[in-house]
Amino acid sequence: MTLHDVSKVYRMGEVEVPALVHADLEVRAGEFLVILGPSGSGKSTLLNLLGGMDRPTGGTIHYLDQDLSRASDRRLTAFRRHHVGFVFQFFNLVPTLTALENVQVATAIATHPLEASEALRVVGLENRASHFPSQLSGGEQQRVAIARALASNPRLLLCDEPTGNLDSATGRAVLRLLWDLNERLKMTVVIITHSQPVARMGHRSATLRDGRIVSVVENERRTLPEELEW
Amino acid sequence: MVKPLTRKLLRELRQRWGALLVLTLIGALGVACYVGFGSVYRDMDGARATFYREYRLADFSLTLKRTPRNLLAQLERLPNIVRLEGRVRVNARLEVPGQADSVTATALSLPESRRPVLNDVMLIRGSWFDDPGGRQALLNDAFARARKLRPGDRFFAVILGERHELTLAGTVRSPEFVYALPGSGGIVPDPRRSAVLYLPQRALERWADLDGACNELLGVASDARPAAIRATLARLERELDPYGPLVSIPMSEAPSVQFLANELDELSRSAAMLPTICLLVVAFVLHVVLGRTVASQRGFIGTIRALGYTRWEVLGHYLGYALAVGMAGAAAGVALGSWIQRGMLSLYQQYYELPGMVQHAYPRIWLAGSLAGVLAPLAGTLREAWRAGTLEPAAAMRPPPPERGGRVLLEKLFPATWSRLPFAVKLVLRAIMRNPYRSLVAFGTTFVATALMVESLCMLRSVDAMIAHELERTSRQDLSVSLREPAGRGLLRELERLPQIAGVEPQLVVSCTLTNGAWEKRVGVTALTRERSLYRPVDSRGAPVPVPDEGLVLAAKLAEILHVRPGDSVTLRPLLGRRQAVRAPVVALADTYVGLTAFARLEYLNRLLGESWTANNVLLATYHREPGSPLLAELDRRPMVLGSEQRVRSLALLRETIGRNLGVFFGILVLFTGGLAFGGALNTALVSLGEREREIGTFRVLGYTRREITGIFAGESYLVNLFGLLAGLGGGTLFTRYMVSFYSTELFRLPALVEGFMLVRAGLLMLAFVTLAMLVISGVIARTRWTEVFKTRE
Question: What are the φ/ψ torsions at residue B535 (nearest 5 degrees)?
Fold first, then answer.
């Protein structure tokens, strides 16, 4: 995926707020990319653009041979449906569905999905399949959310502060899971975080400040999630 | 300065104006029905009471053959009688120069030199009788207007075969003919054919061959309760036996009085029922809406409580939503109600000759309606507002307890079936069962709306079926000719020879008392010939009921009143001829929807009367469905003919009147129920949408299309509404039966017709209204910026 000179300006009433300014970024197939930045730096805007939830006001975004910056709503919906998996900070599970059924929300509309139970097995929750979100711990809920994201068999997994709402031990376990998905299933993983240490586990990390990508760094040696300290 | 809390309230009201407007309108509709129907009731009831009182409507009347006037003073001394007055009442035929059709009128005598003590008339135009020659007349105002007759105009009245030229002195209204029915039969007023003619007493006595006598008594009783009146009438009948009392009725059973009373009953019932439904819906839906608002504003509540706002201020703030909806609804309702009042009054003015029936403002009704309109939403939201007020600041600041997940009843009971359901269905079912209150409101709204819709459609259909039953299946003649007095076969043969005539059938209609033990009823017995084909009693399925050589066929309602069944017998006493009582077997029952009738064979009834062969009514079939005026003129020329009535015309009039009145009434009801269904479905879906916006956001991000998401929401809404709809079809069926039995009076009944296609039509209409609501919802889903919803919790 390639972002070229991408800008996003939000119009808040009469004021124009630039959220992203002339950003250039390449997301390589199979890599683990960490996007780093304080709150308000434009991380979420960037993630929304990468995930086809929004269109830029300037510049182009290409995915394979598609131009996402000019795609219709319908095309963007299809892009999300077939190519992207999302993991949110607040999990966003449907409280009235069991863990398994929450995963089925994704498999029901995907073209080549994993078995929902298989996805739960990958995240180590096969024994909790019939539990409702309120009966699961925060870490477990996030693992269900990850299972849901990977169950549609996406090429791109986008994670918005996946550990933001978890204690450090649980957070590490979740990061471990993402690491494994990237290593074993060769899934492209993009994590957005404001936590500096997480950046060290990616192949590369990009830093955002005030809506600009100020640096993109390749890690010589990746740190394992278990070794991270924050 | 506007307080910050008030400002917040106003802004939030503006944000949700769509949903709140629907609720306000439902509330306004309720208040409007109360104010409108209630005010019309007061207008009419007041005008009726004043008119009856000031023009001294009698408590009872007795029709006799002939009673000397000097007997009255003696009769007045009987117990419970305050006053008796005699008058002459005969049928007359009116001919207006330049107008082809003649009209059967009721001719009544009025004292020449003074106003009558009972059943006085109100002069509308012209003057009282002032010519001692006695060739002056008064007419009821509606007829005079319909026939464009003005004081001073000349016209003719045929009384007992003699034609008299009269001058119209003035036009009047009478308390006993507020709802005037055509003299020649019919159940709706037709001003062109409903004539009441008032003549100077001495002139009418002479023309009716009743010099110094009268044939109708009007009376006032000191105890006017129904039982006392009945006892008094029984006593009078015994005293007057030699003078042949024909019909004695308490005035409350006179057609006009009874019609007006029925109409007022109906008004007061509508004034109570429709508002109750509307306001209940508003209260329940607001309850759900406010519950959700309070839940989403916990943090805000905690903050202002921490800042020092009292619980009463918080409570007041959240009651503000209901107050705004209630006050706007009340104001709009009072205005709309006054408009309904004016519309209904102008409709009633066409049918009721009731002076003083004008629009008044009733501040008390406005106040009561407004109070109900404001209190209902307040009551609906009190619990949630109280919960907001009593939330402790510390507790309010914490996030709400997580939404509970868990197995719903259905999956506990049928785990195997449940596991096979697609997840979207599970989602829908769980959402319904997790929010029982919200679901119940949606269910209840649809249930009530569907039941009302079924009832409206079925009642319209029933009225239509009743008309077809009476005027197409039972009566099939083209013309019915009423005779001045019973005539023999000679007249029949004479009529047969008239041009255009395809068939002639005689009838004898005689007033009789039917008695079974303690139950007694005075009805017209219609006697028919054996080879009848123009008029025949039929059962509810339209199959003819044969009339036996001996005995009676009774209208089902009459049999019910007399507590008899086929195989039983009744005592039959004709009020004509020898007036001898006989035992008559009840052979079969027929279904009639207008009046109470019994049927017998012509020969049988003649035998009871001691006559050889007579008829007082002749039915004619003509080669053209609408007989031409030469035939009508030919009939009018005959002294024996009192008047004639064309069936096609009665049918058309009935259909037109009913199409106009009931059509408008039930049309409004259909719109009302549709609005209720639409508003109810829209509101509950909006609430559900608001509660689940994060879910929708998630679904959108996961790649669900708008249509798929709308499908999930519509699924929930449709399923709940479908249950309400199905239950409503059942409820509507029962409600229709109840309404039909409620309308089942001696005057008028309706068949209980709940047919499959009516239910299908009601169901489809309701689905259409729910679908309309779903279209709005899908628009809302399309407009929502679903990536925004994730930001709200941070």
Answer: -150, 125
Q: Which of B114, B119, B97 is nearest to B167 (CA)?
A: B97
What Å distances lie between residue B46 and B43, B51, B358, B502, CA to CA? 5, 8, 10, 52
Parallel, antiparallel, or unpaired: how do β-strands B247-250 and B60-68 relate?
A: antiparallel
DSSP H/E element including B758? helix B756-783
Report how far residue B312's alpha carbon sits from residue B784's, in angstroms, rounded to the nearest whole number.
Answer: 35
Give dist(CA A150, CA A146) in Å, integer. 6
Measured CA to CA, the distance from residue B387 to residue B381 in angstroms comes to 10
- Nearest CA to B64 among B753, B576, B649, B613? B576
A92: nearest CB among B405, B694, B704: B694
The residue among B349, B363, B403, B378 whose CA lies nearest residue B178 is B349
Q: What SS3 class is residue A38?
A: coil
Q: Do B404 and A134 count as a contact with CB atoms less than 8 A apart?
A: yes
pLDDT in tens, chain A (230 residues): 899 999 998 877 678 888 889 999 999 999 999 999 888 888 888 888 888 888 899 999 999 888 988 888 788 888 888 888 888 877 778 777 788 888 888 887 788 888 889 889 888 888 988 888 888 888 898 889 889 888 888 889 999 888 877 788 888 888 888 898 899 888 899 999 888 888 889 999 999 998 899 999 998 888 888 887 76
Say which residues have a Cβ less than 8 Å from residue B245's Cβ, sequence separation at least 6.
B62, B63, B64, B236, B237, B575
Beta-bridge partners for B63: B216, B247
**Look-up of token digits 């993109």:** A216
Radius of gyration of chain B (CA): 34
Q: Is A105 on the interface with B (CB under 8 A)?
A: yes
A208 contacts: CB under 8 Å, gap ≥ 6: A35, A36, A37, A41, A42, A43, A46, A214
Q: Please name the residue that has the structure tokens 């990536």.
A: B787
Interface test with A, best of B411, B423, B712 (most A CBs within 10 A): B423
Q: Tell which of A44, A74, A96, A135 to mutate to test the B interface (max B CBs under 10 Å).
A: A96
Q: Name the nearest CA neighbour of B437 among B557, B291, B620, B296.
A: B291
- In angstroms, how far is CA B386 from the centroid of its own chain? 43
Which residue type sits at B510?
V
The radius of gyration of chain A's CA atoms, rounded to the nearest angstrom, is 17
Q: Are B374 and B323 in contact (CB under 8 A)?
A: yes
Q: Does the CB of A53 have a partner CB in chain B at under 8 Å?
A: yes
- pTM attached to this predicted model: 0.71
Distance CA B255, CA B249 (A): 10
Strands B195-200 and A84-87: unpaired
B69 is written with which tokens? Answer: 């006037």
Chosen from B701, B713, B789 to mutate, greatest number of chain A CBs within 10 A: B701
Residue linked to tokens 């809390």: B5
Q: Do A132 and B695 touch (CB under 8 A)?
A: no
Tokens of B442: 């949606």
Q: Compute CA B633 distance to the chain's CA centroid, rounded to the nearest angstrom.
A: 38
Tell me, what's the ipTM? 0.72
Q: In this complex, which of A51, A74, A133 lies closest to B405 when CB atoms are compared?
A: A133
Q: Tell me: pLDDT of B593 over 70.
A: yes
Q: How many CB atoms lie within 10 A of CB A21?
A: 17
d(CA A45, CA A53): 9
| Cα B64 to Cα B52: distance, rounded to the nearest angstrom | 24
Cβ partners under 8 Å of residue B68, min gap 6: B212, B213
Could you give the CA distance from residue B591 to residue B620 in angstroms, rounded to a whole number?
A: 23
Please tell me the predicted confidence (pLDDT) of residue B794.
Answer: 34
Q: What share of chain B is helix, strand, coil (3-state, %, to 5)?
A: 55, 20, 25
C-alpha dihedral over B460, B463, B466, B471, to 10 degrees? Answer: -110
